[in-house]
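Researcher: Quick one. two chains, 228 residues in total.
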Amino acid sequence: QKEVEQDPGPLSVPEGAIVSLNCTYSNSAFQYFMWYRQYSRKGPELLMYTYSSGNKEDGRFTAQVDKSSKYISLFIRDSQPSDSATYLCAMSYNSNSGYALNFGKGTSLLVTP
Amino acid sequence: ETGVTQSPTHLIKTRGQQVTLRCSSQSGHNTVSWYQQALGQGPQFIFQYYREEENGRGNFPPRFSGLQFPNYSSELNVNALELDDSALYLCASSSGTSGGASPPFFGPGTRLTVL
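Model:
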């Protein structure tokens, strides 16, 4: 069993829809949770970064962490065609000297006009 | 402020050869990590360097090695290339401090094809 599970999709939604992306994990030692967006043939771009449980909002993006259920989510409001990309969840144990990230496989999102 | 840069953008090697990939970290960052991303997969952690020393390694064989230089730039070396080494190699930098590090920021990657 992989430590981080993520449905690869593809997920197709109409422009303006609310998108929900999710990951589950098995290791309760994870403390730091991130979401990255990756366009085709590019490097991942950091979208959201959270520590421990709770919600964090940044513009159209909201990240949720539920450590009791080992479940994290990313919500995208008012989705746009430019949001079409692969979304990667990532998590790590500690940060004192940097991170060693454990990634999901990524969910491919297509927002249609 | 410049972001993470990597070179070359892409290259093609044959099985058994050796390759060196390079990374310049984002200004102010002293920690560099390397990841391998196979097609359709999430990135896999190879190793991390902090203050010129390796301080974490994923499940990769010793033929994957690295260096970090005093200016925090880094190299990834892969010896005895195998066909399965074909992937996008990503470098990420972050700032490690006693109070915790910033999250990693990734470069554009180097696409390696092994024939």
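Chain B has no helices and eleven strands.
Researcher: Thanks, that's what I needed.
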